[in-house]
Amino acid sequence: MNEIIVSMNHISKSFPGVKALDDVHFELRSGEVMALLGENGAGKSTLMKILSGVYTRDDGTMEIFGKEYGDLTPKQAQEVGVAIIHQELNMCRHLSVAENMFLGRELAGKFTLDNRKMRQEAKRILDDLKIDINPDQTVGDLPVSKQQMVEIAKALSINAKILIMDEPTSALTAKEIEDLFRIIRKLKAEGRGIVYISHRLEELAEIVDRVTIMRDGQYITNGNFADMTMDQIITNMVGREIKEKFPRVSCEKGKKVFEVKHLNAGKMVQDINFSLYEGEIVGFAGLMGAGRTETTRAIFGADPKDSGEIWLDGQEIKINCPMDAIKHGVVLAPEDRKKDGLCTKLSIRQNLALPNLDMICNGLGVISSGKEDKLCEEAIQNLRIKTPNVEIDSGNLSGGNQQKVVVGKWLARNSRVVIFDEPTRGIDVGAKVEIYNLMNELKKQGIAVMFVSSEMPEVMGIADRIIVMCDGRITGEVMAQDTTQNEILTMATSFENKKIVS
Fold this sequence. Notes:
The chain is α/β, with parallel strands linked by helices. The chain has three domains: 235 residues, 3-Layer(aba) Sandwich (Rossmann fold); 170 residues, Rossmann fold, CATH 3.40.50.300; 74 residues, no CATH class. Helix content is 33%, strand content 24%. Strands 6-7-8-3-9-10 form a six-stranded mixed β-sheet, sandwiched between helices. The radius of gyration is 23 Å and the shape is globular. Pfam families: ABC_tran (PF00005).
């Protein structure tokens, strides 16, 4: 049996109004990959932030490599050999890749920083990981997937013996995931312990040895992954049986609600044409960099358009900025919820109310507390947002509950078109089903639903019609029930054999 390198017992942690951890136990052994599983808000990230020195504990004991430690600082945790890759990227966007990788432990010459040596070392690490990124490139100019890989490279660069990965694959392509798994197997063979937090349960069989499951801030169980079925894991995570992973409702296809004609916006949105109808959900599939997110942003007015027309209920509408879109009833739940979807320093109440001030203010511009309370109560109830009250800062919520707030702020509006960009990224299996049910409810109400997803089973399981993009263009359009994953992947990588359904 491998040596126990981390032992955490009776760990408790509270935040204002929230009991995040309650008497939690956790062990990690050398040379193993331990999956730490649970719904959003279960306390997984909080527990690992205590181990990595980000948070202090209220109670409990912690041993690392057989030595008992009190509360660590992040720097002390690094010195002990603990590195964490956070679910939400925490990088200095204005600095270069190399500067981010060596932030806080810069290499110095006699009188100045040795920038050349840091660039060389950063390039060596990136090359070892087979990551094609220039160390001099500004991090803020990189797509989310590349930023995630820089985070991984940064964590590995400190030669960590205990590596915590919190949703590391949420923004990675299939090829990047393969590279990550290759790296994980190499680290495991070297005797390092890896804590792997992921809501993509299908990934676990590739790399995981053991599983620890948490629910509502409490330890539930642990065991060998090979001894557990997926149904057992899910039931322990959510406390109930999930009978249908992709709930689908049948609706009669109604009239055309929304149409995009010859939309062009930069290099990644080229001559986009499609329509959305009542009673259907349209999924946008494609590989990373296909132009799907850029298309949603151009439609919503977040990015400028070069040309094209947008029609709603048979009338052409002009959308030059997000406010124009919102006024017309076209809303977007964006891919990067932390950067584009939330004001993390504001409360849940303020985030829900902010885009709906026109609905909750009286004629004098004064907010009606009654209308605001009703808006918040409905969002909390309908989406099952886990929070003791609506005054909690949204930045203190788990990733999945943050996503629910982003979606919830649009529910109060009589929106005609709802666009979801990667709505279930970083969300647990129970919360995913709630998002799917929400999309189905919108569909039944005759609201046009468009959603972007990088998870092929999700697109095929929820969408009625699938539009495929590659290199900024639509390369195929099929009915979900009449296609296969291979056919979609072929269209996602080729301009040939374009197939369209009316």
